[in-house]
Amino acid sequence: MKAKLSKVALTCMMLLGAFGVNAQTTAEKYQENIRLNDVGYGKVDTNMPRTLEDYVKGANTFFDLLIDVHPMFKYEKEGRLVGKYTMSDRMEEFVEINQGPKFAEKMGLEHAAVTYRLGMESILDFPNKFVGPKKCGECHPAQYSAWSRSRHAKVVRFPDMMEEVGGAEGLKKPMYNSPSTILPLGIYPDDVYAIIGTPRTKYGFIDRWLVRGTYHIQDGNLSDMSGKMVAGGNQFSRLWAEHITPEMAQKIAKFSPGFPTKMDDFGHSKSTVWGTNSYGAKYAQTMMFQPATSYCEICHTFKFDFKSNEEFFAAIGNAKELQKHTISRGISCEECHGAGAHLYGARGAGMPSNCERCHQRFAYQPDEEKPNPRKPFNVYFKSSCPACGTEGSQMYSSLHYDKGMRCNTCHDPHEVTANDWRDEYTRVGLKKTCADCHEIQDEFLRKIGGIHAKDNCTGCHMPNMMSCENFASVQNPDKGGFDNVRTSHIWKIKVDKTAKSINPPTGKERDPMKVKGWRMSRDDDGRFFVDLMWSCGRTSFSDPDLVGPGASGCHSPVQSTLPNDLKFTDQEMIYEKVMQWQTPVKSGYEEIKKGLRDIDRAMANNQSLDNTTKSRAIFLAKEANLIKEKLEKDGSWGVHGPVYSKKIIDEALVYIKEAKDILKAKK
C-alpha cells in the first residue's frame, strides 16, 4: 500500500489537477477521497453488531489497493482504454440506489438499503467463522445432496470446474453453433478467479483481482496486458447465442417492430460476436469498475480462509492462490444459516433462511403510496423488465403475502433446482403447489379433459417475466418478451384489452432502448397484476411451460406448435378469445342468480306449500346455489375450464327449472 499523504498535500494535488497540472484520472480522484476521509478497513469484532454504514465503509481499503494494482488503470494511463469507467462501490449499491436517501429522509433513518441486504459476513472479514458447505454436509447429508444438485451450488465456479464444457479449455470454444465463447475476446482461464452463472441463462467472470468483468480485450490479451481494454462485450448469453439467432430475430421482428436483426441494431448491448452482449457496460462507451465486494458477493458469493487482511491483499491478482484459499462458493449453507451456523455463536446462527437477501429487491417510489399506502415499494428494474431477484418484492404486494405466504411456504430452499441444472429452464423442488390450496380452481382445470387440463397453474399465473441480463435491446414488455428468464410471483391475472403489467414513466414513450424507470403497474386494489400478453402470448426461451419436455410453446407467435389462429401477436387477440369463454359463463351465472331469486320469491309468496314440496324445492335450489358459489370461488369465469363451467351451469339451470316447475304446480 502507498503511504498516506497529509490532507493538505492531497488538497494541493487536487487543486493542481483542476488547473490541468498532472490531471488526475477518475480512479485517482476516488482514491484521494478515500484517503482524505481517512477511512480504512479495521478488524471486525464478531461480538458486536455491524451496521449498514460499517459495512459500506469496510471496503475502502480494498478499493484503494485495487486502484493501485488493477490493469484497467494501466490501460487508461497508456491510452489503451476504450470507454469511460465509473467507480461502483458499496455506497452506490447499498445506500444510493433506488432512492434509498429519499426513503431514509422520510423515515428519519441515517441510511437505507432499499434494494440489497447485508450478508452474514463479507469476503473482507478475516478471520471469519466459515467452515464451508462440506462440513455442513457431514451432518446434514440429505440437504447437502439436494443443494449440490442445485444452481445455488453452481453460480460461482473456477475455470476447471466448468464440467458442461469439459473444464477450462471449453471456456474458449464456440457455444450452441454460434461464434460466442463463455470467456470473451482477450480473456483466458488464467485471467479469472471464477466464472459466474450457469447454462440456464448466461456466464460472466470475476477477474483475478476480484473485480467484475465488464470489459474485453481487443488485439491482445489480459494475461500480458497487451492490446486495448474495451468496455462491454463481456457476457455470454445463451438466449442470444442459441435462441435469438439471425433467423429467429427476423421472425420476432415481424410482430415486434424494431426488434434488432443486425449487430448494430443491438445498440449499447452489442458486442464483437453474435451471442455475447454488454452487461454492466455499454459497448465501447461506458463500464463499471466494480469489485466483487460491492456487488457480486451479495448473491454470487464466496468466502476465503485467509487469517488476515494482509494475507488476502497479498493474493490479489493471483488466481490460483485465491482459489486455493476459497472455503465456500455460491449460495452455500452458511450464507443463509450464518457463518459456522450452530457450531458456535456466529452472526445469524440458527436462521431458517435468508431468501430476501437476494430475492426481495425493492425500488422506493413515493407515489406508490397513493394506490396502496401499505405498499410504498415497487420492483427493482434495471431496464424495461423486472430485474432478477425481484420475486419477493413482487410477492410483497400480493394478496398471497398479506395472507401469510412466504418463500418457504412453497419452496424447499435446498432443492431450488429439481431438474438437471444444465437445462435452460428450472423446475424447483416444491413443498406446496397451487392445487394444495386452490382445490376448486384445480377442479375446473382438470375436469373432463379441458383444453388446459395438462397445463400447470404456473404456466399462466407465473409467467417468466424477469430479466437476468439487462438486455434492453431485446425486451418488449408489450409483446411479452424476450429477455425473460425468471418466474414472476404476482399470480393475479387482469383480463383487460389494453392494461399492461409493465409501464414506462407517465408521458414517456414505450421504447426499452431509450426510456428508463419502468415499473410494475397496479390494479384498483393497489396490487400488481399479470396482463394477458404475459400470461398467454409471451415468448420465452427459459420458461418450462414453453420449452420443457412436451411443451407446446403455449401461444407464442414464434414458439407455439398450435394453429396460426392460436398464436397471439398482441393482447387484443387474447382478450377476444377470453371473452368467447367468459361471456357465456358470466351470462349463465347471472341466469342462475336470477333463478334463485325467483325461487325465493315464489316460496315467500306461497305460505301454503306443504313440507314435501318445500323440501324438494329447497334441495334443488341448494344444489344450484352450490354451483353458483363454485363459479364464484373459481373466479376465472370459464378460463380454467370453459366446457366444465358451461356443463355445471346447465346443471344448475336444470335444478332451478325443476324447482320452479314444482312450485308452479303447487301454486
From TrEMBL:
> So which residues are the signal peptide here?
1-23
Q: What is an example of a GO molecular function annotated in this UniProt entry?
A: sulfite reductase activity
Q: Which UniProt keywords apply?
A: Signal
What's the domain of life for this entry? Bacteria
Q: Which GO terms describe its biological process?
A: hydrogen sulfide biosynthetic process
Q: Does the keyword Signal apply?
A: yes
Question: Which residue intervals define the domain Cytochrome c7-like in the entry?
Answer: 399-461
Alphabetized Pfam families for the sequence: Cytochrome_C7
Q: Which InterPro entries match?
A: Cyt_c7-like, Multihaem_cyt_sf, Multiheme_Cytochr_ET, Sulfite_reductase
**What's the protein here called?**
Cytochrome C
* Native source species: Campylobacter portucalensis
